[in-house]
């Protein structure tokens, strides 16, 4: 090999296996390009990434998450790909708007390599046994509350209807968008409102007070891993997750899972959206750009590659991709793809990706929300404080 | 001049590996971190000089800094004495007699072997959770427990318990130390009609003082720097309600989650000063209670 | 106050038996001195009595009560360790006071006793020092002090004066004797110093290889050693030993003329005849030989004269004061029959029948 | 016949009988005390060992049972977690173990040598600047390591050491861990100085004193240091995480981190199985080396 | 082989000066014995010579080369520590061989020397033991062994025989003398044993409080002590000291009749007159007094008779062999003028003018 590139992603055993297979295949077809695959789990990935970035030693091609892409884009860690689209990388078959979220200020920084959407995975067995009947694609917050009540009472409280999602900012985002309010404006201003925040927390407080959602002990743990979810442990019937994680959830459970949308608010618009679960980015430190481009192009276009990758990283953001995969999907995956397809119609807009500091705002949201969960603050007061804090955070982050 | 060389050569020869390591590997990064503490540095772009900005923000505006200090001090105050006491107690128990003691030593060290792995985090949440083992045991004696680890008022103490439970390394050091106490002192004390307890207080403790001192200083330093257990148990967030926001967890998040390495460096140097103050205090008082048999001067 | 009874006491380290079937009665209030060659088991015996060393076999009773499994701390005794075993982290004063504090004695009384001991031991200026700041002899005195501040029923001293200068040793010896006079406690005292043994002991026990060779008053041991070992061991300079063959009531030693032997009640034809160096007479004595002075050792008050006899035997002569013998000089020497000690071939003392002493 | 005689003698001799009885009584009492102590230790042991039991149990459970069911006993034993876990990652655990072994063995050797060198200098030799350097050494332990991570990374990058084992091993040969220096200093200081002096008189150079007197007399401390440094290096994941890029060169703890994906497919059962296995070498080493710790050396050549 | 020169050597621990302005020349091949009361600085001096103790002031030269900052390991000497300092982790054999291995000596030679030393010291059966399995005297012998296997230019012995029994001590003393004879190396030897000092020394140094009181051959020290301290320190039992007032050429001691004093070349009217216990004559002597026997100490070969005089003064009389005095008895005692030692009021020896000795 005369050229060499490094590809760095966060993974797990299956994903790593698939990715290394892809690399192997790529090298088979491109004997002049050596690819070094580098991988580690999610949590450690970002520490290592930051260190490599600081050292000027980033891998040529990296996997990005929507929660972090802004940080790297704004600081120049990843480079725009505009010049290479159609000129090295062929994205012509991509769904319209599939790369919107990877585009900032008109430049494309991250190529969508798997789309996902918000979802409420639910324990089918529990729902059925409790006799809950609902339309997973069109239920409302009232249906949701009723379902929770039914489940909780029918199991005598052994299983509560739902996890208390008041601290899930992702779920709140849909709630917000249902009212037509996005979190941030295009230029990074905070646009979410005190009212929406208060209403959100109030809604959950009511459910909590009714005793139909999981208790505060489970709630105040933040950023729970799958292993800690009530859904997995059998103590609640639903949670919030990105749809592409359904397979992973199902692997840890015995009961079958179903997927529902985040409940609608009666009379308001849909807040549903899709976003890339992962991006591929070209970094500032990339040495051999043509080789990297060849690699990326192969990744999004090569049929065999798409087959090997499966929907592990999300649903292919192109009909071509989805068609290639359709025959090989297992039951759960098929359900996910179906769900993804069926909810397309509910997408009204794409959310704006958060500015620098949005991660910290999310932390602040969870922290302040905790006070509400613990009963130390009223939803309204907490909402006031959160918005105040969030503004401060954004100001500090923008310096 | 020759005298100077004669006096110093051996010392510096033995110190060479450390000196090389210190000057070539450690000092640079330390100084850089000091420099960074006066800058804004997001790790992607170049650092920007900010004077005392970080420090000013820390002391004037940063509520979470103070919270982190509070959490950390609470932890240090409880965990260090408890852990040392547990370690010393068990070490004393294991010091003599009993043929099977090797097995116990291994068993008691196990928790420390497991360190702060994901398994421990899961387990700890389970044990101290609402329906955890602890509450089941408490229920047996008629006490209704609570979610110890999820209640901001008590969560820190579960970490203290964790620290105490992982007393393996100080225990091992105590064991090694106990072995160094000349047996004839106990014989003399026996002859002097000394009770076991007084032997412990008047012979064991003072003779073990250098080792106790070591453990005290090191455990204090380590306790101030505690990171992994709190980080893993709180999923890196310091939750619930920042009650597990250990100083280094906060520092880590500032650095690697929020890209404020400059601020994190400032935090680090403040922590260093705090630890240094405590260590200096320990060293200063040591001459009153740590006896080195062999010091000439 | 305590009497001690040792019955069939044994001590082994693995296969090595250090104390063998030892039987000994120590009377209440006795000053017993233990002597014996290096490594014979003196310290071990002391440590067993103290309760520091497990007894492999037999029983030890204090005041008639078997104490085999009584811990040292309950035996009410104090001990000066051969290795001092001072508490390195305590000042001299604290070292001395430590044992007393265990008795929860009033502070003033502790201070009084400690000061008294310090005065006796002449370590008053050293009271605030740590043991490592002391000279060997000073340490040893602190070790003695630690034992004497307490007034237990039994004192055990393991070579307590070995590192003191002659003058101090005499003073300390006198102090210990005074202490003994005052308290009349049982004392067991190990020493290599013959003067100490002789002057302090009410009885001396001679130990060899873990066995008792003889027990008796100093005078008994000196004048009537029970066997050749005791004869050689007690007395400095060492007793002269001469081989003799007996035939027909006559004894013959190389270099000496044969002489009539009193009835010794033994059939052995090989005897050992011992004569103390101070019993040798130059130019006199009932049994005489010719010799040549090999070496004159100067000891201040006296001289030790080493004399070679023709057969190669060597005799030691303890010469008094003004004596002007020189090495190389030829002399006639002799001794009286009354000064002879007789030992049979099994090295046991044999006593001449009284009537027959000429 | 012969035993008979002895027995008779025992019965006949009241002292011997008494001695016999006493021994029996003492034995009984010792036994009781020992039993109590054991009981306490056993209970304590259970508390201490519980997490390991849980870990082992989890490693044997089917994936979908690990979190749903809190009992220790698996419904079926999934030994496949072990067999498959070993090869679940792109690189076999055989390689990870080999990597870990290389790094650990070299690191432990480096640590013990270089730290005992420095400790010897600090504890035993006098030279100008000793206190100053000792203070600096203590200081290096106080700075949270996260803030020197990046400068250090840059340094090693400049040296071209990234993606090699050098950043993991070289610092250990340069006494980078103050903990061990301080630990050894405290133990070295306890060794009677007279032994150094005797060795000096015997014509020993400072190195020979260190090697022939100080080291053998600090076996408990060295054993402790060996155990700690082995365990810590074996379990260390931050440095390997930062400095190793190629999966082929990963160490065991890094490999264990590859099983868990907060956001996706995880293999908890296999991760637990491999975690259990990763403890095995450490435990073996612990059991072997703790003997050093307890075989204390009585400093009894001294008066 | 090494000669030593000490010039104005001082040693202080903080404010405490332990050795003061010490000047001493030790000749090559000399056997120098260091004596002095406990804590006077003997060990310190030895350690300074060895290079183990920093010298606060002054210079030490070996063979004319100043060695103040030469490390001990380069001084080519061996030393027996007062505290033995055996290597606890090595067997006796290894303890002995250790120093030789540093010289990179052939294995066979090492083995030979070690075996030889073991034989001399009678520790052959102990060779594989660790120090903690030895008795005190055995340890001490190992310590000696460690020093003598090497054959350095200078030997330093710090009370090497203090824990041995009398017999062994004599044997060891003879062995050391033989070693000295064979090697003719410089030896510096600290002891509290007068016999050792007297028999081994070519010169004795008497130290007190870190200062040299007198240096001389054993005979000089005994017969012409330079001052009252030396007179009292050398000689066992201790010399008798009597206060005397001088007037008109007559000296008067309490209890004694006045007698004519030779010219002492001093104007002091207060003198101290010393008489050795063996110079006392019962019923004889030129100067006489009446006394009463307070105590007779039995020492085997001789007796120590303590006599009270009327004024309360006490005299010690060293009685030879067959002597039958009893406590309580009244006696007349006396001594000759030739046996008197005179010391002036500053405790320095004054010598009677030769011509005037009657
Ligand atoms: N570290 C120290 N600090 C203070 N004083 C000390 C120290 N070491 C020794 N000394 C004092 O120095 C003096 C001389 O001690 P040294 O050991 O030389 O005495 P020594 O003549 O050998 O006595 P001994 O015959 O008892 O062994 C003693 O009075 C002792 O107390
Ligand atoms: N732990 C041990 N293992 C084996 N033998 C030992 C042990 N301790 C002592 N001995 C041996 O036991 C014997 C008696 O020792 P002990 O200390 O009683 O002698 P000692 O009479 O006090 O001699 P010394 O006069 O030399 O002090 C010695 O020969 C010694 O070597
Ligand atoms: Mg002994
Ligand atoms: Mg001394």
From TrEMBL, chain B:
Gene Ontology CC annotation, any one: plasma membrane
State the Gene Ontology BP annotations: transmembrane transport
Bilayer-spanning residue ranges: 12-38, 71-94, 106-124, 156-178, 203-221, 227-252, 264-284
Instruction: Enumerate the SUPFAM superfamilies for this protein.
Output: MetI-like
InterPro entries per UniProt = ABC_transporter_permease (IPR051393), MetI-like (IPR000515), MetI-like_sf (IPR035906)
Q: Which residues form the ABC transmembrane type-1 domain?
A: 69-282
How does the record say this protein sits in the membrane?
A: Multi-pass membrane protein
Please tell me whether the keyword NADP is annotated for this protein. no
**Primary location class:** membrane
Q: Which family does it belong to?
A: Belongs to the binding-protein-dependent transport system permease family.
Q: What is this protein called?
A: Carbohydrate ABC transporter membrane protein 1, CUT1 family
TrEMBL record, chains C, E:
Q: Which GO terms describe its molecular function?
A: ABC-type maltose transporter activity; ATP binding; ATP hydrolysis activity
Which residue positions does the secretion signal occupy?
Answer: none
GO CC, one annotated term: maltose transport complex
Q: Does the keyword ATP-binding apply?
A: yes
Gene3D superfamilies this protein is in? 2.40.50.100, Nucleic acid-binding proteins, P-loop containing nucleotide triphosphate hydrolases
Q: Which Pfam families does the entry link to?
A: ABC_tran (PF00005), TOBE_2 (PF08402)
Alphabetized, the UniProt keywords read: ATP-binding, Nucleotide-binding, Transport
> What family name appears in the similarity comment?
Belongs to the ABC transporter superfamily.
| Name used for this protein in its record | Carbohydrate ABC transporter ATP-binding protein, CUT1 family
TrEMBL record, chain D:
Per the record, the similarity remark reads: Belongs to the binding-protein-dependent transport system permease family.
Q: What is its main location?
A: membrane
Membrane topology term reads: Multi-pass membrane protein
Domain of life the protein comes from: Bacteria
Any transmembrane segments, and where?
35-57, 101-123, 132-156, 168-188, 209-234, 267-289
A single Gene Ontology CC annotation of this entry is:
plasma membrane
- Where is the protein localized? Cell membrane
Protein name as annotated: Carbohydrate ABC transporter membrane protein 2, CUT1 family
Specify whether Flavoprotein is a keyword of the entry: no
């Amino acid at each position: 090999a005369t050229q060499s590139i490094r590809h760095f992603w966060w993974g797990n055993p299956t994903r790593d296996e698939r990715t290394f297979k892809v690399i192997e295949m790529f090298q088979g077809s491109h004997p002049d390009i050596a690819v070094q695959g580098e991988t580690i789990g999610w949590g450690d990935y970002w520490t290592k990434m930051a260190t490599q970035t600081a050292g000027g030693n980033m891998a040529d091609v990296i996997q990005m998450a929507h929660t972090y892409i802004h940080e790297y884009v704004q600081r120049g860690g990843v480079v725009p790909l505009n010049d290479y689209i159609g000129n090295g990388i062929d994205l012509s078959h991509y769904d319209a708007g599939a790369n919107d979220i990877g585009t900032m200020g008109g430049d494309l920084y991250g190529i969508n390599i798997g789309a996902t959407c918000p979802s409420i995975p639910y324990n089918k067995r529990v729902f059925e046994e409790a006799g809950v009947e609902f339309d997973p694609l069109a239920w409302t917050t009232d249906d949701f509350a009723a379902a929770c009540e039914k489940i909780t009472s029918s199991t005598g409280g052994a299983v509560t209807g739902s996890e208390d999602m008041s601290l899930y900012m992702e779920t709140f985002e849909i709630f917000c968008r249902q009212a037509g309010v996005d979190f941030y404006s295009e230029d990074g201003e905070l646009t979410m409102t005190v009212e929406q925040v208060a209403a959100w927390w109030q809604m959950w407080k009511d459910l909590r007070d009714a005793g139909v959602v999981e208790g505060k002990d489970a709630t105040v743990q933040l950023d729970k891993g799958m292993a800690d979810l009530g859904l997995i442990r059998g103590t609640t019937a639903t949670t919030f997750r990105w749809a592409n994680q359904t397979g992973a959830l199902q692997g840890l459970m015995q009961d079958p899972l179903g997927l529902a949308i985040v409940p609608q608010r009666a009379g308001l618009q849909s807040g549903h959206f899709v976003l890339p679960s992962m991006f591929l980015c070209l970094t500032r430190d990339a040495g051999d750009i043509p080789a990297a481009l060849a690699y990326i192009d192969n990744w999004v276009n090569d049929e065999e590659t798409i087959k090997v990758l499966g929907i592990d990283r999300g649903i292919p953001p192109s009909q071509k991709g989805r068609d290639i995969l359709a025959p090989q999907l297992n039951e759960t995956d098929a359900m996910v793809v179906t769900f993804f397809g069926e909810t397309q119609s509910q997408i009204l807009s794409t959310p704006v990706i958060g500015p620098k500091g949005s991660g910290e705002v999310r932390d602040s949201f969870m922290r302040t929300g905790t006070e509400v969960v613990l009963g130390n603050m009223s939803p309204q007061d907490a909402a006031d404080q959160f918005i105040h804090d969030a503004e401060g955070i954004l100001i500090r982050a923008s310096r | 001049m020759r005298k100077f060389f004669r006096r110093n050569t051996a010392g510096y020869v033995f110190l060479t590996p450390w000196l090389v390591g210190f000057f070539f590997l450690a000092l640079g990064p330390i100084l850089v971190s000091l420099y960074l503490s006066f800058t804004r540095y997001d790790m992607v772009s170049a650092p920007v000089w900010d004077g005392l900005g970080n420090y000013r923000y820390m002391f004037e505006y940063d509520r979470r800094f103070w919270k982190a200090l509070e959490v950390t001090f609470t932890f240090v105050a409880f965990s260090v004495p408890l852990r040392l006491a547990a370690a010393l107690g068990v070490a004393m128990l294991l010091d003599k007699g009993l043929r099977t003691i090797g097995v116990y030593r291994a068993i008691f060290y196990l928790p420390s072997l497991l360190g702060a792995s994901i398994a421990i985090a899961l387990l700890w949440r389970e044990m101290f959770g609402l329906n955890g083992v602890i509450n089941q045991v408490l229920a047996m004696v008629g006490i209704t427990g609570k979610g110890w680890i999820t209640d901001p008022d008590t969560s820190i103490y579960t970490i203290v318990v964790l620290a105490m439970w992982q007393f393996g390394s100080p225990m091992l050091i105590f064991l090694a130390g106990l072995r160094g106490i000349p047996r004839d002192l106990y014989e003399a004390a026996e002859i002097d009609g000394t009770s076991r307890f007084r032997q412990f207080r008047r012979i064991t403790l003072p003779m073990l003082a250098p080792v106790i001192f070591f453990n005290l200083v090191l455990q204090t330093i380590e306790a101030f720097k505690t990171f992994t257990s709190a980080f893993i148990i709180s999923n890196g967030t310091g939750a619930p309600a920042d009650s597990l926001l250990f100083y280094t967890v906060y520092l880590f998040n500032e650095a690697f989650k929020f890209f404020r390495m400059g601020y994190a460096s400032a935090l680090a140097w403040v922590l260093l000063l705090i630890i240094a103050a405590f260590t200096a205090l320990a060293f200063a008082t040591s001459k009153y209670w740590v006896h080195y048999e062999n010091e000439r001067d | 106050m305590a009497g001690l009874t040792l019955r069939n006491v044994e001590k082994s380290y693995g296969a090595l038996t250090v104390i063998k079937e030892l039987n000994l009665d120590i009377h209440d209030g006795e000053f017993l001195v233990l002597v014996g060659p290096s490594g014979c088991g003196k310290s071990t015996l002391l440590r067993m009595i103290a309760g520091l060393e497990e007894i492999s076999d037999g029983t030890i009773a204090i005041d008639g009560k078997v104490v085999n499994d009584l811990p040292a701390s309950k035996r009410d005794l104090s001990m000066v360790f051969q290795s001092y075993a001072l508490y390195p982290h305590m000042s001299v004063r604290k070292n001395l006071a430590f044992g007393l504090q265990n008795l929860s004695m009033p502070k003033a009384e502790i201070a009084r006793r400690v000061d008294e001991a310090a005065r006796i031991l002449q370590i008053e200026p050293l009271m605030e020092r740590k043991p490592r700041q002391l000279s060997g002899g000073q340490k040893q005195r602190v070790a003695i002090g630690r034992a004497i501040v307490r007034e237990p029923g039994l004192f055990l001293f393991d070579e307590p004066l070995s590192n003191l200068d002659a003058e101090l040793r005499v003073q300390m010896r006198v102090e210990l004797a005074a202490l003994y006079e005052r308290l009349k406690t049982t004392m067991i005292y190990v020493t290599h110093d013959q003067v100490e043994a002789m002057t302090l002991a009410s009885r001396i026990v001679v130990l060899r290889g873990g066995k008792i060779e003889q027990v008796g008053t100093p005078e008994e041991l000196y004048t009537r050693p029970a066997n050749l070992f005791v004869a050689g061991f007690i007395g400095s300079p060492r007793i002269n030993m001469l081989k003799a063959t007996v035939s027909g009531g006559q004894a013959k030693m190389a270099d000496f003329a044969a002489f009539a032997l009193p009835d010794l009640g033994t059939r052995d034809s090989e005897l050992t005849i011992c004569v103390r160096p101070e019993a040798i007479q130059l130019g006199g004595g009932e049994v005489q030989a010719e010799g040549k002075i090999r070496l004159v050792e100067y000891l201040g008050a006296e001289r030790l004269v080493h004399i070679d006899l023709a057969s190669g035997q060597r005799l030691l002569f303890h010469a008094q004061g003004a004596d002007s013998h020189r090495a190389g000089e030829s002399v006639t020497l002799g001794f009286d029959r009354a000064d002879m000690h007789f030992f049979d071939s099994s090295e046991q003392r044999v006593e001449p029948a009284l009537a027959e002493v000429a | 016949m012969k035993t008979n005689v002895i027995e008779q003698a025992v019965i006949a001799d009241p002292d011997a009988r008494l001695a016999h009885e006493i021994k029996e009584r003492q034995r009984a009492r010792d036994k009781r005390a020992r039993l109590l102590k054991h009981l306490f230790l056993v209970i304590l042991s259970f508390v201490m060992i519980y997490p390991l039991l849980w870990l082992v149990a989890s490693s044997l459970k089917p994936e979908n049972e690990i979190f749903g069911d809190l009992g220790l006993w698996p419904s079926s034993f999934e030994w496949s977690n072990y067999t498959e876990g070993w090869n679940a990652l792109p690189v076999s655990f055989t390689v990870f173990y080999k990597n870990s072994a290389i790094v650990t063995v070299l690191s432990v050797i480096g640590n013990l040598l270089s730290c005992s060198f420095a400790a010897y200098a600090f504890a035993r030799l006098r030279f100008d600047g000793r206190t100053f350097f000792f203070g600096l050494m203590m200081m290096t332990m106080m700075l949270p390591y996260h803030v020197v991570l990046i400068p250090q990374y840059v340094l090693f990058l400049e040296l071209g050491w990234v993606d090699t084992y050098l950043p993991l091993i070289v610092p250990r040969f340069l006494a980078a861990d103050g903990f061990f220096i301080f630990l050894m200093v405290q133990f070295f200081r306890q060794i009677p100085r007279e032994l150094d002096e005797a060795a000096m008189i015997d014509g020993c150079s400072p190195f020979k004193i260190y090697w022939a007197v100080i080291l053998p007399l600090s076996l408990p401390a060295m054993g402790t240091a060996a155990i700690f440094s082995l365990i810590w290096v074996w379990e260390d994941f931050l440095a390997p995480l930062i400095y190793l890029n190629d999966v082929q060169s990963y160490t065991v703890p890094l490999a264990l981190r590859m099983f868990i994906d907060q956001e996706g497919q995880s293999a908890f059962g296999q991760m637990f199985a491999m975690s259990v296995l990763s403890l095995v070498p450490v435990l073996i080493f612990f059991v072997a080396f703790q003997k050093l710790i307890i075989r204390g050396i009585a400093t009894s050549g001294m008066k």
